[in-house]
Amino acid sequence: MVVPLGELVAAHGAALRFLAREPRRHRRVIGFRWRRLSAGRQALLALAHLRVGHTYTQLAAGFSVGTRTAYRYVTEGVDLLAALAPTLADVVRAASVKAYLLPDGTLLPIDRIAADRPCYSGKHKRHGMNVQVLADPFGRLLWVSPALPGAVHDVRAAREHGIVDALAEADITRWADKGYRGADGTVRTPHWGRWEALSTGQQAVNRSHAKVRALVEQAMATLKSWRLLRKLRCSTTRITCLVQAVLTLYLTSSGG
Questions:
Q1: What is the mean pLDDT of residues 31-46?
Q2: Based on the domain organization, do 220 and 100 belong to the same domain?
Q3: Domain that holds residue 122
């Protein structure tokens, strides 16, 4: 498979320029004067991995470097980007002027065997890692949490990441789905129960709730548009850095 360099440069020029600055700055800090790839080419290598999902073997062939070199350059670039991702505290401060936030959880599929039970999601019937997402009322992605094993339920993940307490303390309303039932605080969830068992008023409330929450699907689509995240074949310990690197690039491209 040929790495679509021209398409990546044309579609992600702003993100690529931003990404190139980080390896360039890092090289000045550590004192490296020469490397096999320039900072710009290293940025393009990392972007091709994240955006298109190319393997290290494919990247090595496309950039005429060794597989180990491709891995090292991608890992370095991802780590530099992940360090720039906003924290939950940053997002809470910025979101204090918003009417509400839209939290949601998603499963990032991983390439794992059946023996890895902690990563198996009974809801999705597959192995993966649970990440929590916060979106604004327009469906724009604001924050992505560190990854937890897929067996962790959404409300438990939200508590472990401190999302419930942080947004409650800031008095920020959240419109969440049934997976967050019991979170309390400023979390609004739909009425629980079979549709036909709900009263007419409860059904109307649930319809309105669904309309408000519909825009969070845009944030999820944004995250999954990065092909690497559609099927992760790396160590689960690397997934948090990958999603945070993607978040940094998305916010850079969107002006967030």
A1: 80
A2: yes
A3: 88-224
